[in-house]
Amino acid sequence: MIPAVVVFLYVIAVIGGGTTLRAVSGGLVPFWLGGAVVSAVVMCYVLFGGMRGTAWVNAFQTVLFLSFGAIAVAVIAAGMGRFRQAVEAMLAAPSTARRLEHFRRTVVLYPICMLAIWLPSVFLGVIANQAVDVPAIAAKIDARATLAAEGPTLPASAVTSSAPPPRATMSSSPSSRDMLRCG
Amino acid sequence: MAAALMVAACYARHQDFWFWREARPLVFGFLPIGLFYHAAYTVAISLLMLVLVRTHWPAHLERSSHE
User: Fold this and answer.
1) First to last CA, chain B
2) A124 → chain B, closest CA residue
């Protein structure tokens, strides 16, 4: 179920990217190429950025969406006259809210639709958080524990340089501080 | 009044503090109990909305818009 939901989410994003690039380029960029570009960009920041990089990209995108959403509301309202006038015209229109009945199903099903999105996402996060058998993650956990226990007493070379620290357990990996900085 | 109490009870149940640090028992063998709680909570909220829509829908607004 989880892969199916995730695949649908990403297919929508790829379709949207391909459609948008084709529209803004006036057809110069074909649909398949736009989708391929979007896929390549997403793969780049997920593969090279990891979970933290992906989270930062998502945070940036959210700020971007909200900002441009606010700009769109202002521009559209200005195009319709003034915002207050647009709202009053909408309220005065005889067709407005004539079918209030249509919202009944939306109100009831909205929580279920949200559940279909957040449950797989959170579950994936839970699974990823348990993946401690990955060597890089295990090294980071060790480094974090070492730093928490002995951080103030670690030699300066172990904290400031990338030279192997004198500890036997850390001999094959960068210093504890470096591990945390990279993560 | 009953609807208001139901909404208040649901709101209170959302502020859970149990199952925060314990994943087990795993529901269906894979789903942490805290995650399952909130999934079940979401379904319960949907049912609550169904009750509210059926019993407290502002139909008078629709009637007035027809007139």
Assistant:
1) 30
2) B31
User: pTM for the complete prediction?
Assistant: 0.52
Cβ contact A112–B42 (<8 Å): yes
Interhelix angle A2-24/A31-79, rounded to 10 degrees, is: 70
Q: How far apart are CA B27 and CA A9, in angstroms?
A: 26
In this predicted model, what pLDDT tens digit does every residue of B22-59 receive, in sequence order? 778 888 888 888 889 999 999 999 999 999 999 988 87
Torsion from C-alpha of A23, A27, A32, A35, nearest 10 degrees:
-30
Q: How many other CB atoms are found less than 10 A from the CB of residue B47?
A: 14
Q: Is the ipTM above a cut-off of 0.85?
A: no
Q: Do A104 and B58 touch (CB under 8 A)?
A: no
pLDDT digit string (tens) for A1-21? Answer: 555 666 777 788 889 889 999
Can you give the residue ranges of every domain in chain B?
Answer: 2-12+24-66
